[in-house]
Amino acid sequence: MRRKSAPDNGITDVTTAVTRSGTSTSPAADAARRSAVAEEQEFLDSAIARRDTLVDHLQAELSSAAPDVLERARLRMLRQQYEQLRRAQERLVFGRLDGLDGTVRHVGRVGLRNDDEDGEPLLLDWRAPAARPFYTATAVDPQGQARRRHIRTTGPVVVGVDDEPLDGTMTAELVGEGALLAALDQRRTGHMSAAISTLQREQDDIIRAEATGPLIVQGGPGTGKTVVALHRVAYLLFAHATMADQAVLVLGPSPRFLRYIAQVLPALGETAVVSATCDTLLPDIRVGRDESRTLAEIKGRALWQAALENYVGSLFPRPRELKLRWEGEFYVIPAGTVAQVLASVRGRPYHRAREACAEQLHHLLTEAVVDRREALMHAMEEGFEDILARVDRSMEQDLRPGGGPTGSDVDGLLSEEEIDILRGRIGENATIARFVEAWWPTLDAEEMVSGLLTDRALLARFVPRLSAAELTAVSTEPAPWAPSDIPLLDAVADLLGETGAPPPPGGSVADHARRQRGWVYGHVVIDEAQELSEMQWQMVLRRCPSRSVTAVGDIDQAEAAHRHTSWAQAVRAAFGERWTAAELTICYRTPREVMDLTGPVLKRAGSHNSPPRAVRSCGIDPWVRTVAPAELAATAARAVRQLQQRWHGGTVGVIAPADRIAELHAVLSDVPVLTAVQAKGLEWDAALLVDPQGIAAGPRGWNGLYVALTRCTQELGQLVLA
Ligand SMILES: Nc1ncnc2c1ncn2[C@@H]1O[C@H](COP(=O)(O)OP(=O)(O)OP(=O)(O)O)[C@@H](O)[C@H]1O
């Protein structure tokens, strides 16, 4: 932090001289702008030098550190700091707050401390509480600030500054409007980038919200839901140190979408993150086919959870007398004792219960063997020579082989150590293991689910709420797994519990989390959450029992097979009434000219909401061409070429009904040609909609058309069939 000598004068000079777009209005203004840029360049240079020094220090410390177990946590933290600093190249410094008290604070991608450890930081991390006014201070609520400055940089060079006085002389709905509009107008690269320098108030409120329970964020297309979701991950990992130990799960709608957002969190230095779709959450299972909407809807219903619990529950053994054979003799464990053993593991997953019961069985058998021996010893004491001989023989067998103590106490009773050895032998004995396996078999989730889904009678027994037609539809599906099978497999795998050895050590927290189906995350973020079925929500809950979940989505863009038209319906099965709602209201992506077309489409989709308000106009009117069906593909190819020329250096995407994709792919190999569902969450500079009526004709087609219309940042073209 620096203190200005004459705060009021300094601020006034610059802010009156520099307009929001950074262009000057007079020679005096030009001079003020140059001086402001020079001042910020000086600061940026010092921040870069400090960052480089810290990187060098950390590198030296990491390379000289011994791999001491006790040091692991500290080394992990150092490595994280090192990675964050090393990656903090672009926009190292992007903001400045001038306090009413004359203090000056710079805000940047990472925090940088001065040489003096206890002193004020040189640069505030954008997530630090002290940086918050940069995103939320207004003229009405200046939060102790006199001015906010956006510093525009290209690599290590300051190229401009945009000042906003917070004294009421300039009122703007947007924070750092110049910088924001410049960011929104940039050509799209095909990858989302971080927006730390231009986050808006309503976005910041959600990013920094408490993470103690489910937070559901509704926002229309382009309102920055993905931006908010990803920056919230970065914020939570910064604000809650322990969250990095558990990792954060980011669930997106498709692999294509995950590729689109893949660079944002690494660029912010965050690596304790696992990205997946609901279909790829199970480490060893892959979806092998599409499915009908009817089946997706049936198998997405919450009722499957109880059905599967009953199904797995039915396979737990019932209490009955158990007769075990050990060293040629039979031992009986009465049904009452078995019932007690079973009761003691009630509520545990199948395999964990099995493991615990098997252990108790080993104990009981050991006790029975020891008791019988003691009885024999008593008899021996009473002088039965032949029994003595049997005991000796039996003991020789029991304590063989293995190098342990081979003798017994002088009185013939087993010592504690010998009893332990006996118990160990029973626990490792193959015959006993076979007996336990026959009594309580280990099960495989995939076999269990396919066994249930292909057996109509079994389905009718465990899923009685399905109609006869639904039972038939489910039981006659083909073999490879479909998307709606994944939550069923996950539910059964969870009810069964893990078997086998834990995954090998090594790798990062994210590697561990990725490899383990049952990993519990510190937080889960879901994008396009309106698409999740009730059973997919259960998958989320299993991975985050604390319910520290942020779900962003647009209920009006819902295209999934479920019939939810409100968030209350969508999340009732998962959270009941206990969730918090938030809303994003401003559309950043799609220009006003295009958003004006979306109102009627949204109405046709059955929504009572209005589309979000577009923040900017691009000056390009959306266009429509009517085309004969036979000309469609060729016209689309020509239109795409023209768009590519106009948006040279940017991106173009095509959206069409599913049945036209193949025909278009044949002529358009260098641009994405997607259905509306596949285009979810994506954006391009220009979008071409081919046969929009066809898009609207599908199931939930108007919602699909709403998605399709809102993918462009600049130009929208439509080819309508004659
Ligand atoms: N504060 C911001 N600063 C800069 N760019 C932003 C900001 N907020 C949103 N954007 C940009 O606006 C576009 C839309 O954002 P985003 O994809 O997060 O919206 P969305 O609500 O998830 O949209 P959709 O529901 O259509 O998928 C992106 O290019 C994003 O980078």
From TrEMBL:
Residues 1-34 are annotated as: Disordered. One of its GO terms (cellular component) is cytosol. The keyword ATP-binding applies. Residues 12-27 have a biased composition (Polar residues). Keywords: ATP-binding, Helicase, Hydrolase, Nucleotide-binding. GO terms for molecular function: 3'-5' DNA helicase activity; ATP binding; DNA binding; hydrolase activity. Gene3D superfamilies: P-loop containing nucleotide triphosphate hydrolases. Coiled coil: none annotated. It comes from the Bacteria. It holds the Pfam family AAA_19. GO terms for biological process: recombinational repair. InterPro entries: DNA_helicase_UvrD/REP (IPR000212), P-loop_NTPase (IPR027417), UvrD-like_ATP-bd (IPR014016). ATP binds at G219, G220, P221, G222, T223, G224, K225, T226. The keyword Membrane does not apply. Residues 198-591 form the UvrD-like helicase ATP-binding domain. This is Helicase. It comes from Micromonospora wenchangensis.
